[in-house]
Amino acid sequence: MASNFGFEQIEDSQICVVMVGLPARGKSLIAQKIVRYLKWLSVNAKSFNVGSYRRADTPHPTADFFDTENVEGERLRRAAAEAAVNDMLRWFEHEGGHVGILDATNSTRSRRAWIEERCKSKGYDVMFVESKCDDEELIMNNILEVKTTSPDYIGQDPEVAARDFRDRIRNYEKVYETIDEPHLTYVKLINVSSQVIINQVSNYLQTRIIYFTMNLHITPRSIWLSRHGESEFNVLGKLGGDAGLSPRGMSYAEALPGLVKASVGVKDITLWTSTMKRTIQTTKHLTYPKKQWKALDELDAGVCDGLTYEEIEKKYPEDFRARDDDKYNYRYQGGESYRDVVIRLEPIIMEMERGSDIMVVTHQAILRCIYAYFMNVPQDQSPWMEIPLHTVIKLTPRAYGTQEERFRANIPAVSTFRAKYTSANMGGETAKRVKPPVAGAQANGVITINDDVETAPQKARAVSVVESLGLNGDKTV
Ligand code: ATP
Ligand code: F6P
User: Fold this and answer.
1) Secondary structure letter of residue 411 according to DSSP
2) Is 231 labelled as part of a ligand binding site?
3) Whose CA is nearest to atom 8 of ligand 2?
4) pTM, rounded to two decimals
5) What is the reported pLDDT for 75?
6) Is 143 in the pocket of ligand 2 (CB under 6 A)?
7) Which phi and psi (to 5°) does residue 82 adopt?
8) Pocket test for ligand 1, best of 136, 167, 218 (most atoms within 8 A of CB)
9) What was the pLDDT predicted at 469?
10) What positions constitute the catalytic site (predicted)?
11) Below-70 pLDDT ranges, the chain
């Protein structure tokens, strides 16, 4: 557990986070985001979605199933909730679960009292996260965006599905009791956090979860990620340092305004860099407001700073091997591990969640960690991801995932990627994989293509949609 972040306090605490709210209030989305955030911070977290348990017996319910006068419906819903709670309690007990999320409407006092009793009897803390929203237009949008495509309505006319879902909500409204039990720990997010009510918070992890949920928003936006242009150290195969850009890196800096324009359009974005020369030089021709963050500086290679992989292998063979055995946790002597980097990036991620359109120009290890957060990449894989030079990655949060697009400049650069258990291989050119210019490519002649889109050259860009929250196909509501 990360000792400098305070999460060590949770070694002893296990928390059940209970979502509360009417249907189509973003509960599942918030639950999945909490899980993603905590897992990224090495907290064992998991969401238990009662809808998916209910679906085992009742895959395509109509609105009347959710009428509390419907005795059979009530029985089945109760059984689904019990099955989810039982699985969650088992997970706490046998699988070292720290934060279990019970994702259901939990919209009556009696349901909440029952959950509280089940969890407390086993010694687990309970906190409630209610999403309350009375913005009819937003709710209708939510229904059309995610509910009409839910497995509940497979094969149905979207209009019929939307009407039925509206009726489902009406049935819930008849019995809905907003949370106001004075003894409970809760956060109430009203109209996407335009108002927040917090009650009886008792420990650090609860505070972190609350702060995180308060910062979530659903205003459409994108995040652009790029490494700095190729540096003099990249060319020499050396790690770390504070070298300037190589001539090809300079060309990338010159090309960046065009490349960014192609992927950003006319929007105003905020530009974040590290405090290192190579990221600052890379953004020198961009005119957006800029902010330098020390937290975005490259992973500190300690005693290996300034060495090549070959030199490290010769000088520190045991370290070289140990790093490949567990790259996420390996900490360079006098330097950092990927785990350390994640801890120092936490405030950056929080700012990114709060913020709007942001472009981050930073370093390979840092981008791996940021990308892993947004795309839900597990820790054993994230330090091994290939994040090429001279490429802009655009991430756009969607209802149940993150869409990824890549815009590649046609400017050759070395590859700084080294595969596990291989010795050094710096110097392979990413440019070998870059295809020739596409007619109509935008961005001042900068090539903004990707292998995937040769069949759609008019787009002149990469479009690879990657789902990241695990909610898409089998969205569990
Ligand atoms: P159900 O009870 O049917 O499972 P739900 O409350 O879990 O519904 P989601 O499936 O998470 O709702 O709904 C996702 C939609 O909610 C997305 O379109 C998202 O933009 C929107 N959304 C996210 N957060 C909020 C919020 N705080 N308030 C209202 N809508 C939100
Ligand atoms: O749409 C509401 C929903 O997500 C259903 O899919 C699910 O069956 C139900 O909420 C779970 O909540 P509850 O246990 O309160 O019925």
Assistant:
1) -
2) yes
3) 51
4) 0.89
5) 98
6) no
7) -65, -40
8) 218
9) 46
10) 228 (tele-phosphohistidine intermediate), 298 (proton donor/acceptor)
11) 1-12, 424-477
AA letter at 290? K
**Which residue has the CA at smallest separation from atom 24 of ligand 1?**
26
Using a 10 angstrom Cβ sphere, with 0-12 exposed, 13-18 middle and 19 or more buried, the burial of residue 370 is: buried
Has 229 been labeled as part of a binding site? yes
230 annotated ligand binder: yes
Q: Nearest CA to 239 among 174, 323, 134, 181?
A: 323
Tokens 């400049």, residue located: 409
Report the nearest-CA residue for atom 2 of ligand 2. 23
CB neighbours of residue 428 within 10 Å: 13
Distance separating alpha carbons of residues 278 and 243, to the nearest angstrom: 6
pLDDT of residue 432: 36
Strand partners, 396: 403
Q: Which domains does the chain have, with CATH numbers?
A: 15-215 (3.40.50.300), 223-408 (3.40.50.1240)
Sequence length of the chain is 477
Q: Specify the long-range contacts of residues 157-161, CB closer than 8 Å, at least 24 apart.
A: none
Instruction: List residues with catalytic annotation.
Output: 228, 298
Query: How does DSSP assign 104-131, residue by residue?
Result: S---SHHHHHHHHHHHHTTT-EEEEEEE
CA dist., res. 169 & res. 163, Å (int): 10
Whether the Cβ atoms of residue 63 and residue 164 lie closer than 8 Å to each other? yes
**Span from the CA of 90 to the centroid of ligand 2 (angstroms):** 21
